[in-house]
Amino acid sequence: MINYHLTITGHVQGVGFRWSVYQLAQQAGIEGIVMNKNDGSVYCELQGPIEIVKQLIFKIKTGPTPYARINKVKIIEGSLQNYHHSFQITH
Question: Is the dihedral of CA 2, 54, 64, 7 positive or negative?
């Protein structure tokens, strides 16, 4: 299991980005959260088996919705958390 924290910048708010990440995470069985930040970025915490998390990060980097434009994805490793076996869109 791995836990990564992502900060995604670009045109990522108001384009269905969080919802698309949510759907991808649900399909992959990944736990965590996704939320909009006040600076216009999107923040994600992804937790699960390393290969599945890496596949999800690849999909995020390539834009999970055709309306998003990704400029940068900053990734740092976090510690394992208790997300109660779910993935949530938070505020």
Answer: positive
* Given the residues 3, 18, 71, 82, the one annotated as active site: 18
Q: Is 69 a catalytic residue?
A: no
- pTM over the 0.85 mark: yes
Tokens of 79: 């510690």
pLDDT of residue 78: 97
The DSSP-derived string for 67-80 is: T-EEEEEEEEE---
- Write out the DSSP string of 29-42: T-EEEEEE-TTS-E
CATH number at residue 19: 3.30.70.100
Per the structure, the complete domain to which residue 74 belongs is given by: 2-90
Is 36 among the catalytic positions? yes
Catalytically annotated residue among 3, 36, 38, 71: 36
Phi, psi angle pair for 80, to nearest 5°: -60, 140
